């Protein structure tokens, strides 16, 4: 019996080591893919023909937030894997305890919020009601862009106020914890809000507005078919269809679908931890470790996917990306020619 148990523990340890190796490479791959995607997304969405749509403004700021997440959350995780010493230096500071945790609370919530507002905007645009469509405009978008981070900053304000470094007699390092009993309650509520919003509320809202967009598109299509005989009515409905910005809607719907799928493992893991459903038997524990690792990959994929979805689903986005590439290429050629054949401005 003892030999069997030792053998099982040996298999579990070997499997866990393999998972750690795969995880270290996967995190680096996600970081590289995410950084390239975020940078190209920001460059493309800044183009005039795209940024005139309120939805694209939300996409732009979501990409900026994703870029920050890449360089804070994922980059720090890579440092943890490959250089634990630097990790200890960063995480043992009071600055990280208060400000670092504060930022890592705000950024994912901001990213989810901007995607939700993008889906709300596309729902407004897809409506056949002209009064509803008027709510989709750049003025309201700018207000939402500014107000949203302020709200999340206020909701997460308990972190820098209550968190502090405390020495633990059981270990040599200090721990970042909430110091008072009331602070612990705020910390638990804050963590619950964070997981609930990103894991359940955001996917639910994205699902609801995604279905509403599809319903409005179906109604619009039926209305077009019913009035095809009347050219004036057909032109009017066609103009409505143009305002719906089909490229943006397609980009959004695909992104919404993948966001919901990628968030499922996170909410399952949270429910297991919250209701203390962990098993300490070897095989279920190993399965939980594997599922937890894959769930973390899916969570980070949420912040890596936007550019690749936009490129695959929208010819407008691809056209703008090619235009930007040609502009950069042309600019580099001019710089090269100017460097090789400098213009003598003193002639004449």
TrEMBL record:
<keyword id="KW-0297">G-protein coupled receptor</keyword>
<feature type="transmembrane region" description="Helical">
    <location>
        <begin position="25"/>
        <end position="45"/>
    </location>
</feature>
<feature type="transmembrane region" description="Helical">
    <location>
        <begin position="57"/>
        <end position="82"/>
    </location>
</feature>
<keyword id="KW-0812">Transmembrane</keyword>
<feature type="transmembrane region" description="Helical">
    <location>
        <begin position="192"/>
        <end position="215"/>
    </location>
</feature>
<feature type="transmembrane region" description="Helical">
    <location>
        <begin position="102"/>
        <end position="120"/>
    </location>
</feature>
<dbReference type="InterPro" id="IPR017452">
    <property type="entry name" value="GPCR_Rhodpsn_7TM"/>
</dbReference>
<keyword id="KW-0807">Transducer</keyword>
<dbReference type="GO" id="GO:0004930">
    <property type="term" value="F:G protein-coupled receptor activity"/>
</dbReference>
<feature type="transmembrane region" description="Helical">
    <location>
        <begin position="277"/>
        <end position="298"/>
    </location>
</feature>
<keyword id="KW-0472">Membrane</keyword>
<feature type="transmembrane region" description="Helical">
    <location>
        <begin position="252"/>
        <end position="271"/>
    </location>
</feature>
<keyword id="KW-0675">Receptor</keyword>
<protein>
    <recommendedName>
        <fullName>G-protein coupled receptors family 1 profile domain-containing protein</fullName>
    </recommendedName>
</protein>
<feature type="transmembrane region" description="Helical">
    <location>
        <begin position="140"/>
        <end position="161"/>
    </location>
</feature>
<dbReference type="GO" id="GO:0005886">
    <property type="term" value="C:plasma membrane"/>
</dbReference>
<feature type="domain" description="G-protein coupled receptors family 1 profile">
    <location>
        <begin position="37"/>
        <end position="300"/>
    </location>
</feature>
<keyword id="KW-1133">Transmembrane helix</keyword>
């Amino acid at each position: 019996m003892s030999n069997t148990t030792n053998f099982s523990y040996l298999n579990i340890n070997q499997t866990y080591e393999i998972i750690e190796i795969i995880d270290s490479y996967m995190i680096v791959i996600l970081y590289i893919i995410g950084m390239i995607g975020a940078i190209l997304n920001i460059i493309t969405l800044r183009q005039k023909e795209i940024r005139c749509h309120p939805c694209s403004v939300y996409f732009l700021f979501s990409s900026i937030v994703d870029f920050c997440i890449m360089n804070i959350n994922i980059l720090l995780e890579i440092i943890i894997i490959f250089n634990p010493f630097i990790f200890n230096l960063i995480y043992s500071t009071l600055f990280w305890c208060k400000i670092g945790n504060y930022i890592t609370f705000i950024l994912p919530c901001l990213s989810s919020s901007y995607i939700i507002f993008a889906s709300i905007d596309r729902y407004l645009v897809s409506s056949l009601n002209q009064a509803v469509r008027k709510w989709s405009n750049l003025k309201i978008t700018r207000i939402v862009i500014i107000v949203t981070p302020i709200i999340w900053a206020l909701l997460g304000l308990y972190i820098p106020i209550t968190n502090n470094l405390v020495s633990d007699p059981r270990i040599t390092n200090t721990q970042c914890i909430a110091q008072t009993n009331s602070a612990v309650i705020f910390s638990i509520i804050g963590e619950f809000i964070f997981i609930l919003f990103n894991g359940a509320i955001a996917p639910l809202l994205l699902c609801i507005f995604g279905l509403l967009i599809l319903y409005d598109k179906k109604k619009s299509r039926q209305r077009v078919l019913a009035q095809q005989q009347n050219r004036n009515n057909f032109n009017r409905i066609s103009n409505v269809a143009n305002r719906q910005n089909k490229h943006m809607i397609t980009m959004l719907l695909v992104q919404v679908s993948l966001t919901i799928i990628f968030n499922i493992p996170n909410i399952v893991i949270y429910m297991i931890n919250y209701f203390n459903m962990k098993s300490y038997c070897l095989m279920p524990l190993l399965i939980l470790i594997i599922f937890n690792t894959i769930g973390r990959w899916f969570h980070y994929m949420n912040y890596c996917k936007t550019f690749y979805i936009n490129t695959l689903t929208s010819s407008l986005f691809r056209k703008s990306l090619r235009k930007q590439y040609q502009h950069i290429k042309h600019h580099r050629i001019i710089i090269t020619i100017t460097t090789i054949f400098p213009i003598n401005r003193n002639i004449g």
